[in-house]
Amino acid sequence: MRKLExxxxxxxxxxxDQSIYAAYTCAEFGLSFSDIDAGTGLVFSVSSATQSRYFxxxxxxxxxxxxxxxxxxxxxxxxxxxxxxxxxxxxLSGEYFFLHxxxxxxxxxxxxxxxxxxxxxxxxASAFVKPLTGSRGDFAQALHDEAALIKYLGDVATYYDAILxxxxxxxxxxxxxxxxxxxxxxxxxxxxxxxxxxxxxxRNLLTAHNDGLRSRGLSPVTxxxxxxxxxxxxxxxxxxxxxxxxxxxxxxxxxxxxxxxxAHALARQAARALGLRVxxxxxxxxxxxxxxxxxxxxxxxxxxxxxxxxxxxxxxxLKIWHHTFSATGLL
Length: 331
Known about the structure:
four-stranded antiparallel β-sheet, D-amino Acid Aminotransferase, Chain A, domain 1, alpha+beta, 331 residues, five-stranded antiparallel β-sheet, globular, 10 helices, Dna Ligase, domain 1
């Protein structure tokens, strides 16, 4: 089996992971891979001796074994939450609010900006807020006063049409990756951090961190101008950034089993409820320190698998793409 590094070497940094993994799997199983977009990797074909199929990377759906309806429902965090509740799956609740007046005549009342402020007050002026159809942790953050919410709504309205507002929950966060009913891997999620160099202040380190987020099309971490971020971190010391834990936003994930099989069972329930064959279920365990308390955070129908490359688990990448090519009749 050729090393995965061979398929990444020589490609530009922006070349999509999924295209690299598809080419890697094609080489292993005797299929032909062809980039058909002048080397961007965003559109490619895979061919066997008898047929050819097209695939997309980037913003496309990566897993054709998930049907379009299931994928679309999962991508809307409110709809997904309603389906999970109907199916009796323990999941975080949330309310949605629109950020623009367009299409207002076509939607129910009590979901406008002013309603968001009222709901925020009901939650004690503290909530976790994120775009309704966002991904990669973009604009996902905890807010703790009305002024911060008003600013947030203005910032996110530039890029999204609606938000989801949820109560803040404290627990250990895991991702469970499923192929049909099989748990392929689980990972513990940890928050992003900055690392001291013995000279830079925390504020300067956060500024550099935010520059990196913006370059990848993600919202920056909010830096409170009045917070005590002017201390210098000793070289090598880690300072965690609270909030979102997505890999793309600088978080880390480590392959690690959750504390009980109950987390796997909950993940399976969530994927079945939405009708997904490939899914990554993000969930909290040990909520409030209770080892038996767990809830689904959200369901991902288009999950990244870069963690497997970083962890040296090319075998699992092959298994995922073998599942994909088998589902589309290429294998």
